[in-house]
Amino acid sequence: MNKSKGSIEAEISKALTQWEKDFLGRGSVSVKADILRDMIIVTLRGILTPAEYVLCETKEGMLSIKRMRSNLIESGMNGLKEIIFTITGEKVKSFHTDISTQSGERVMVFKLDRDIEKDFE
Predict the structure, then answer these.
(1) Phi, psi dihedral angles at 50 (to 5 degrees)
(2) The Na+-translocating membrane potential-generating system MpsC domain covers which part of the protein (predicted)?
(3) How far is residue 34's CA from residue 60's CA, in Å, rounded to a whole number?
(4) Which structural domain, as residue segments, surrounds residue 41?
(5) CATH code for the domain in which residue 110 is found
(6) Based on the number of CB atoms within 10 Å of its own CB, is 38 exposed (0-12), middle (13-18) or buried (19 or more)?
(7) Domain count across the chain
(8) What digits encode the pLDDT tens for the residues 51-77?
(9) Which of 51, 57, 64, 97 is most buried, taking the most CB atoms under 10 A from its CB?
(10) Which of 39, 48, 49 is nearest to 108 (CA)?
(11) Largest Cα–Cα distance of the chain, in whole Å?
(12) Residue 81 neighbours by CB under 8 Å, 6+ apart
């Protein structure tokens, strides 16, 4: 890889922002990707709409929002994996995500087949 770690992280952040706009209809306020060993950890801020924050005031509403948002991401999984593969050349072995209904932040973790951070040392 002849690109810097920072430029690849920025490319992933930009691509995921575009994916959100195309697939979900709106993007988050900020997206930050970090490469750590065999993982790409992405933090997305400003995920929830004002209406979703109101729903999250009850436990039932919070669980409903988490479930719905999780289903939306899962349904776009192939697109997400394709983005990571296109930018890094690595296949995604597993994917994990959760959303905080308090902060409106989502964390995505893409586990890859190998430690790509070593490529930048």
Answers:
(1) -55, -40
(2) 5-114
(3) 33
(4) 5-120
(5) 3.30.980
(6) middle
(7) 1
(8) 999 999 999 999 999 999 999 999 999
(9) 97
(10) 39
(11) 49
(12) 91, 92, 95, 110
